[in-house]
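#onboarding

Welcome to the new folks! Below is a worked example of what a typical request in this channel looks like: someone posts a single protein sequence, and someone else replies with the predicted structure as tokens. Don't worry about understanding the tokens yet, we'll cover that in week two.

Example request:
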Amino acid sequence: MIFIFKFMEGKRIKFVIGFILVAIITTSTIFVCSIRKNITVVIDGKSTNMVTYQKTFGNALKKSGISIDVKDKVDKALNSKIQNNGVITITRAINVNVFVDNKKLNVKSAEKDVALMLKAQQIDISPTDKISPSKETKLSSGLGITVTRVNSKTIKQSKPVDFKTVIKENDSILKSERTVSQNGVNGLKSITLNVTYENGKEVTRKVVKETLVTQPKDKIIVQGTMPAVSVSRGSSISRESQVAKATPISSKSNSYSKTFSVKTTAYWGSEGTNNTYTASGQKTVRNPNGYSTVAVDPSVIPLGTKLYIEGYGNAIAADTGSAIKGKFIDLFFNNEGECGDWGVRYLTVHILN
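Example response:
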């Protein structure tokens, strides 16, 4: 009996120990399973699946040897708790160069494009500033971005208006005689100019308004038309009078497809004719003996159209401008003086076939 009792007691102890071991293993397994989590790490669009027993994303990344730079963008807080099948996205910062306000800035950014990078760097951009490449350009390592500050101001100038010389014929005065009956006096006009600057340097100036302050006074010259008196021996003195009739000069005929009235202004490039380009990509030119480049509204006059502009000559529509709308043509000249002399004129333009 004693032997049987001891045998049964030994089996009970083994059972209890076995039960305890099973309970410990089960509990441990449940605990391990409860802290074991699958996560996905996306770095610059490339996904990696991993298993972690860490509580936060920061610890999980550190445990996996993934470092985070201060300029990198992470879509979750590193101290946020991990949920099973959680996803964390990391965008690595890259180096770009920004040229602005006469300075070169070495910038490290994880922004998507140029616009977001400039905003993140607190670089103010005005609506008139030029950005190259465009603000929509995606950032890439080593990309160079140039910000050109563009502003304009309105100035006024006074310029003389040349007087005209008028010749009046008088048949009571010999044709060999010419006298000045009235001296000419220059007038005065006020010109309003819009001057554009890029990074503080003037690039263009354009006449936007012209006002006549003082009317010029014509110079009048009296020209005799009476022929010399001829005297013949034994004859009386006779006077021969002739009436000069003006014969119209025939001009070379041109073939026009359309004719209409337009408002014209003048502009020039302060960088020089050979350094100024039109919207169509060709260099601006003023060629009185050929075709000069002018700016038009393409919806009225398509680019490439050949024109004849009264008082200006043959021209080709090669340029545009934000202020050139409707029946309005901006004529290119070689210098500021020629622009001032032209001012603002309303005249007829012919579309050449």
